[in-house]
Amino acid sequence: MRTPLRPVVLTGASGALGRELARRLGEASWPLVLTDIVPFPDPLPPAARFIVADLEDGAAILRLCEGAGTILHFGGVSVERPFEEVVGPNIRGLYHVYEAARREGARVVFASSNHVIGFYERTTPLDADCAFRPDGYYGLSKAFGELMARLYFDKHGVESVILRIGSCFPEPRDARMLSTWLSYADLARLVICAALASQVGVATIWGASANARSFWRRDDRAVIGWQPQDSADPFAPTLESRVGDDPVAERFQGGTFCAIDYTRDRG
């Protein structure tokens, strides 16, 4: 594996996906600058340093991104929460990341989410250029992030790879994840391809493994040369009957996020 010549900043490094990426990229001796609002809970990889920073502190984000060639933006609120909890880290914090990328001429690999399209029905196959249908304030903030990526490319030439992550866990957990699961290994390979590709413009990629039941079809993965190697399919005999009892969660691609604070008729 090639090693980036300039430092790679990873926000959200203390979260589940951040820790996994830090370990895998650290094993490859990537020059990592890890950051989060809480301390990093694991031993630091050999070529890494960790800096505590709040995404809402623009000056701090600019400082820790000095000299960076790539920003892996996995920080912020990662589940559905009230608007006031989401807006600071996921909107203002994202702006600070893109301002740092503009100043440094860095590429952003943005951890977006399937929740930008959560209110499509599961029977509707989607291409990556479909319209947004966010299923909550979290998904709305990720849709904003994808539009920020487009703005900063069109206005400033900042390249972005948008990873529309499905359900990234060690193993799928229920019937929905037979469609949305992304293995940790496929995530790491996706991030590596996104960071090392020569030119990307703004590329949007479904973050899911090679699942036969996937809701999602065409995207920009050819731009970075990524193909998933894992699949949720072997888990189907165990999980295909593992469904919930909420008709809203089972109807839409966003699952339980769609059902949170849902006030329409559930019939």
What attributes characterize this protein structure?
267 residues, alpha/beta, Rossmann fold, 7-stranded parallel beta sheet, two-stranded parallel sheet, 10 helices
SS elements, strand count: 9
Total discrete domains: 1
Distance between the termini: 52 Å
Tell me the helix content. Answer: 25-40%
**What amount of the residues lies in strands?**
15-25%
Task: Give the helix/strand class.
Answer: alpha/beta
Instruction: Give the overall shape, derived from the CA principal axes.
Output: globular
Largest sheet: 7 strands, parallel
Briefly note the CATH topology name. Rossmann fold
Strand order of the largest sheet: 3-2-1-4-5-6-9
Run of helices and strands: EHEEHEHEHEEHEHEHHHH
How many DSSP H or I helices? 10
**CATH homologous superfamily descriptor:** NAD(P)-binding Rossmann-like Domain
Mean pLDDT: 97
Instruction: Give the second-level CATH assignment, the architecture.
Output: 3-Layer(aba) Sandwich
CATH level 1 class label: Alpha Beta
As a whole number of angstroms, the C-alpha radius of gyration is 18 Å
List the uncertain runs. Answer: none
